[in-house]
């Protein structure tokens, strides 16, 4: 039986890392001089995957968003998954902005990605939508690497992640391209010092 390799195209943020980024941003806001005495705050509704930013005015809202965005980048949370809402007036002369975190690929975008993969006419690669992600399968890893190379430009625009290749039986493939002589050479130099 020939094994097939596959990879999944998915999008989403690790909600624990988002929570950590919000906590770090809140601590920085408390410490920063330009936020002293302001009504700036951040909140994260984990169940709905929604961030709520509240600030005194548009200038502080921009600064608050910059702090949050920098903390999310440091925590490895993809900022392309954020759908920014409009800045709206709120109570007590403040402004509010809701940011939704995209979890999963919407059906219309998933269909467009599958169509793009099929239009490029890779020999034996097959793409299928499975819930909120796309699975691409092929009999060889080389074919999958061609698919990844052919689709990474569009993948970066939508903030999707292309994880490592894996065998259909669940085992990870071995790394390719390492010559045994190279490894021995490095170890030989390290041991001769």
Radius of gyration: 22 Å
Number of domains: 2
First and last CA, distance: 49 Å
Strand fraction equals 15-25%
- How confident overall, as mean pLDDT? 77
Per DSSP E runs of 2 or more residues, the count of β-strands stands at 9
Which CATH C-level class of the largest domain is it? Alpha Beta
Q: Tell me the helix content.
A: 40-55%
Q: Which fold name corresponds to the CATH topology of the largest domain? A: Alpha-Beta Plaits
Weakly predicted, low-confidence segments: 154-193
CATH superfamily of the largest domain: YajQ-like, domain 2
Which architecture name of the largest domain does CATH use? 2-Layer Sandwich
* Biggest sheet layout: 5 strands, antiparallel
DSSP summary: helix tally: 5
The H-and-E topology, N to C, reads as: EHEEHEEEHEEHEH
What oligomeric state is this? single chain
- Identify the overall geometry: elongated
What is the fold's blueprint, element by element?
Layout lengths: L4 E5 L5 H17 L9 E5 L4 E6 L2 H17 L7 E3 L3 E3 L3 E8 L5 H13 L6 E5 L2 E6 L2 H18 L7 E2 L12 H13 L1
Antiparallel strand pairs: 1-8, 1-9, 2-3, 3-6, 4-6, 5-6, 7-8
Give descriptors for this structure.
193 residues, alpha+beta, Alpha-Beta Plaits, 2 domains, 5-stranded antiparallel β-sheet, 4-stranded antiparallel β-sheet, 5 helices
What can you tell me about this protein's structure?
This protein has 193 residues and is α+β, with helices and mostly antiparallel strands. The protein is elongated, with a radius of gyration of 22 Å. It has five helices and nine strands; from the N terminus they run E-H-E-E-H-E-E-E-H-E-E-H-E-H. It has helices at 15-31, 58-74, 107-119, 141-158, 180-192; strands at 5-9, 41-45, 50-55, 82-84, 88-90, 94-101, 126-130, 133-138, 166-167. It folds into two domains: 5-11 and 105-166, Alpha-Beta Plaits (2-Layer Sandwich); 15-101, Alpha-Beta Plaits, CATH 3.30.70.990. The strands form two sheets. Strands 2, 3, 4, 5 and 6 form a five-stranded antiparallel sheet that branches. The protein is 40% helix and 22% strand. A hairpin with a 3-residue loop joins strand 5 and strand 6 (94-101).
